[in-house]
Design brief:
The chain starts with a strand and ends in a 32-residue tail after the last helix. The strands form 4 sheets. Strands 3, 15, 16, 17, 18, 19, 20, 21 and 22 form a 9-stranded mixed sheet that branches. It has 13 helices and 22 strands. It has helices at 8-15, 24-41, 57-65, 75-84, 100-109, 119-131, 171-181, 202-222, 248-266, 279-282, 316-320, 332-337, 418-422, and strands spanning 2-3, 6-7, 19-23, 45-50, 69-72, 91-93, 113-116, 136-143, 146-149, 152-155, 165-166, 185-191, 228-230, 272-275, 286-298, 302-307, 326-328, 346-352, 361-369, 376-380, 400-405, 408-413. It is α/β, with parallel strands linked by helices. The radius of gyration is 25 Å and the shape is globular. Helix 3 crosses helix 4 (75-84) and helix 8 (202-222) packs parallel to helix 9. Strand 21 and strand 22 (408-413) form a beta hairpin. The structure holds ligand LLP. Ligand LLP binds next to helix 10 and helix 11.
């Protein structure tokens, strides 16, 4: 198995496991496909990478090099982008619960847009901008009443969401009026995001129509002219053979005509079109490599293959019942000669993580050549929402991330060490007497021995 021209087993040996491997060409290809397909269908397009999918300095720089802007949704993501050297005037600042400190930070670096999620935030941005003598460019995130996830699309007029400003109850219109009156914000446009891992085009086209209808209403009520419309992210990817995602071209060919048509129906000028893909930029580019530590065969029940990572590096299976595919990277030659049907050396197994939880599984029921301890197991499509959602549960250090291209591998995030794990731990003076040896039961003695040590 090779990834970006690098032998996967060699990568595992060289950098250790678990290891996130990101195929640079795949990321670039996904970026280009969005830019090209949308530019071919619409006059003024900006593709904004939703960095929550995978935010590390090298990836931020890479997608910007491909002409994408950045969506950040926290002070930490913004800091990562800025410290990588990404220009602030290509950064959109999202989030439904921004703090004053985060907004002040974003104002001080000069982000291109705030995507304001509530009336409270609108007032706060205005107040903080005024205190700095600035005018902040903002967009309003609205809830268009469309909820779309994999194979599931509902248009309910639903307003029960923590995100965005509600249209049907009049809040959105009120927000436009307020934004137009506040002196230290300038309202440039509207934003919506209808869901994630979406496999259909209709919800996007419908969202465009709802947003344009609202823009018309807001124009009549307040004179607001929508310069830009952001339709969010959400394009699905192929995690396994059951997934049949639409492409950036499919999306462009659905959304661009819908927007042009709505603009003419509502008598509005064509706004700039912004999109915010995250998963579909980095998801398929990622593979996680693990080492098999134990194989437990329960005859007639199941074979558990335990690897050296799990829900700490990929919480998506436990959280969302996500379904991944996996293979043994060191047994691919055999896979070419054997097939699951023809050979008894194949086995259907389930891949278990190393955390102390029964729910910590990575893959259920996957066929592979009979696994053995020491094998290198690859789980595919882990580029999005894996590293970015990783934790130190059970105090596992977070894995390294390597970027591969043309046979070259560069570490873009170093593996955490045990020292990193305890770096922020502090021991109050009253506990510092405790040496490595626990006191015998019933004879615990509290004294100040060792109180000087940290
Ligand atoms: N824009 C906004 C405002 C968003 O909230 C999101 C994702 C995106 C863009 C990017 O969506 P994408 O193209 O990646 O689907 N942790 C979950 C996914 C949460 C997505 C949240 N928002 C998962 O692992 O499936």
């Amino acid at each position: 198995m090779t990834i970006g021209g690098c032998d996967a087993v060699t990568l595992a040996k060289r950098f250790g496991t678990p290891l996130y491997v990101i195929d640079e060409d795949e990321v670039r290809r996904a970026c280009r496909s969005y830019v090209q397909e949308f530019s071919a269908c619409y006059p003024n397009v900006r593709v904004v990478y939703a960095s929550k999918a995978l935010m590390v300095k090298a990836i931020a720089l890479l997608v910007m090099e491909e002409g994408l802007s950045l969506d950040v949704c926290s002070g930490g993501e913004l800091y990562t982008a800025i410290s990588a050297g990404c220009p602030a005037d290509h950064i959109y600042f999202h989030g439904n619960s921004k703090t004053a400190a985060e907004i002040a930070f974003a104002l001080s670096v000069g982000v291109l847009r705030f995507v304001a999620d509530s009336l409270d935030e609108l007032y706060l941005i205005d107040r903080l901008a005024r205190s700095k003598g600035l005018v902040a460019n903002i967009m309003l995130r609205l809830t268009p009443g469309i909820e779309a996830h994999t194979h599931d699309y509902v248009k309910t007029g639903q307003i029960d969401s923590k995100f965005g400003i509600v249209i049907p109850n009049g809040d959105a219109l009120r927000a436009v009026g307020i934004a137009k009156r506040l002196a230290n914000v300038r309202l440039t446009g509207l934003h919506c995001h209808i869901g994630s891992q979406v496999f259909e085009m209709e919800p996007f086209a419908d969202a465009v129509d709802i947003m344009m209808g609202f823009a018309r209403q807001a124009h009549e009520a307040t004179g607001f002219v929508m310069e830009e419309l952001n339709i969010g992210g959400g394009l699905g990817i192929r995690y396994n053979s059951k997934d049949d995602p639409i492409t950036a071209r499919d999306l462009a060919e659905a959304v661009a005509p819908a927007l042009i048509d709505s603009a003419s129906r509502y008598g509005l000028p064509l706004p700039s079109l912004l999109l915010e893909p995250g998963r579909s930029i980095v998801g398929e580019a990622g593979t996680t490599l693990y080492t098999v530590n134990a194989v437990k065969r329960i005859e007639g029940v199941r074979t558990y293959v335990s690897v050296d990572g799990g829900m700490a590096d990929n919480p998506r299976v436990a959280l969302y019942q996500a379904e991944y595919e996996a293979a043994l990277a060191n047994r691919m030659a055999g896979a070419g000669q054997l097939s699951p049907e023809s050979s008894e050396t194949w086995e259907t197994v389930s891949v278990a993580g190393n955390c102390c939880e029964s729910g910590d599984m990575l893959v259920w029921d996957v066929a592979m050549p009979r696994p053995e301890v020491g094998d290198t197991l690859a789980v595919f499509c882990t580029g999005a929402y894996n590293y970015s959602m990783a934790s130190n549960y059970n105090r596992y250090p977070r894995p390294a991330v390597v970027l591969v291209r043309d046979g070259r591998a560069d570490v873009i995030v170093e593996r955490e060490t045990y020292t990193d794990l305890v770096a922020h731990d502090l021991v109050p003076a009253r506990l510092r007497h405790a040496s490595a040896r626990p006191a015998a039961a019933g004879s615990a003695r509290l004294d100040s021995a060792g109180a000087q040590s940290r």
